[in-house]
């Protein structure tokens, strides 16, 4: 009798250990973060900053936690031009990832009547159930781990037009 209980406890301990060590469906298929591919449309030399750090000029790839998909902010600044900040505030729930997690990573232990949703716990802890919303302007999806952000940077163009108007001036009637 003791050997049967000991083997069940050993199996239970093993399964719990494996489920903690190995991530579940949403974490496996997409991870707790994704890659934001940022491209500045009107300036290949514009400096792209994220989290106070320069990440590239004209384009950059940034690893972003999925939990921050609705709080994403980039700033762009070109030499002798004004800085422009872009905010992305929408995210979507990854329903298929939850379905896969429930179906594939829910365990039943012997006669234990309630399923233990190990995968849901791991994925929720990793915030792996979220993704950027492609309904938000200038956001497109390449695949489940890569999203594109196309930024329209117009601060230099507006300044150049303003300088032309000031220097040349509007035509005045005599």
Brief summary of the model shown:
The chain has helices at residues 2-21, 25-28, 95-104, 118-126, 155-168, and strands spanning 33-40, 47-50, 53-57, 59-65, 72-77, 84-88, 91-93, 130-132, 139-143, 146-151. It is an alpha+beta fold and 174 residues long. The strands form 3 sheets. The chain has a 4-stranded mixed beta sheet, with no helix packed on it. It has a 4-stranded antiparallel beta sheet with strand order 3-2-5-6, with no helix packed on it.
Describe the structure.
The protein has one domain. Strands 4-1-10-9 form a four-stranded mixed β-sheet, with no helix packed on it. A four-stranded antiparallel β-sheet has the order 3-2-5-6, with no helix packed on it. A hairpin with a 2-residue loop joins strand 9 and strand 10. By secondary structure, it is an alpha+beta fold. Helix content is 33%, strand content 30%.
Topology:
Blueprint: H1 2-21, H2 25-28, E1 33-40, E2 47-50, E3 53-57, E4 59-65, E5 72-77, E6 84-88, E7 91-93, H3 95-104, H4 118-126, E8 130-132, E9 139-143, E10 146-151, H5 155-168
Parallel strand pairs: 1-10
Antiparallel strand pairs: 1-4, 2-3, 2-5, 5-6, 7-8, 9-10
Features:
174 residues, alpha+beta, four-stranded mixed β-sheet, four-stranded antiparallel β-sheet, 33% helix
The main β sheet shows up as:
4 strands, mixed
Shape label:
elongated
State the secondary-structure class: alpha+beta
Q: Look at the structure and give the mean pLDDT.
A: 78
Number of strands: 10
Whole-number tally of structural domains: 1
Order of helices and strands: HHEEEEEEEHHEEEH
Strand order of the largest sheet: 4-1-10-9
Total helices: the number is: 5
Q: Please, what is the oligomeric state?
A: single chain
Helical proportion?
25-40%
Termini separation: 110 Å
Radius of gyration: 25 Å
**Strand coverage percent:** 25-35%
